[in-house]
Amino acid sequence: MRAEVFRRVVVGRRKSIIGWALGFLATMAFIVLLYPAVRDQPSFGDLIEDYPEFVQQILGLGGGLELGSPEGYLNSQLFANTLPILFLIYLLAFAVRETAGEEGDKTMNLALAHPIKRERFILEKFAAMTVTGFGLAMVAVAGLLITGPLVDMDLTVAGYFGATVSVFLIALAFATLALAVGAWTGKKSLAYGVTSTLAVAFFLLWGLAPIVDALGWTNAINPFFWGLAGTPVVSGLQVGNALLLVGAVVMLVAAAIAGFRRRDIGV
Hints:
Layout: H1 4-12, H2 14-33, H3 35-39, H4 42-49, H5 53-58, H6 70-79, H7 82-104, H8 108-112, H9 118-147, H10 157-185, H11 188-208, H12 223-228, H13 232-235, H14 239-262
Helix pairs in contact: 1-9, 2-9, 7-9, 7-10, 7-11, 9-10, 9-14, 10-11, 10-14
């Protein structure tokens, strides 16, 4: 049967996906509805201006964004921190569970006993992760579009969509790395450890690179820079940067397939 692995994964996770979707909606509503409290208190912005440049960058207030503006508020409270964390938690757990986790639970032999090629097995797992993750991204955009007008947050659809999809692609790149590590090693702890360590390291480098000349070169290999450069919440999706992230994802999927194909599966 076509896409049987994809169907099995999505159906098996349907309750979890619904729960995550409701959580995304609640998070969007909570953050957006707090905006008037920040907008009407200029002292918050003045306080942020006294922070070191590194802290302002990490908070998503680089590039001249101000906390009191809709773009600056959402970038600092959502797109530069909260949303990446949510996507990383969901996608990393998905990637590891569907490779090393399934192997560790001794259930992978049941799936591989069917007439399915290993590369298709990995591709359908990846497709399930990507489709459900993108679905959550669209839920987030819908939540922003619904609640934004309630507090006179006049961002464009392109801003909401561009920033959300950019953050999703950043997390997808790290999740696909976890998928590859899990496919190559079959070890959950290693897949989580390597990927989460790199995600934190690149996030910190993204904050430090603008103020430490010796680290400027890291932007060329940093998914956070690729996704958030150009301030997509203002300018919309940066197509060139998005293509860099998509290219990285494609290469990591190929690596996952290569590793899974050559290894004896522990069942």
